[in-house]
Amino acid sequence: MQVNVVSRHGSLRPEVHAHITSRAEKLLTYFERVTQIEVTVDFEHEAVQVEIIVDTEHKHDFVARAEGAEATAVFDA
Length: 77
What we know:
The chain is α+β, with helices and mostly antiparallel strands.
């Protein structure tokens, strides 16, 4: 399984990047056929927008979006 964390219009601190990666890898405990997880953190507007796309084997992609003030809190939501 591959986890890609991408940031737009800004950068992530290394500890935030590591937090997002470790939490995304835990999705395997809920669904073992995950092939790829892509997390996009967008700092374009005043609020941080996070989008997670989970690609699974033989299923449709799962997509989640959230918006808030801090990247870690938005990802955890």
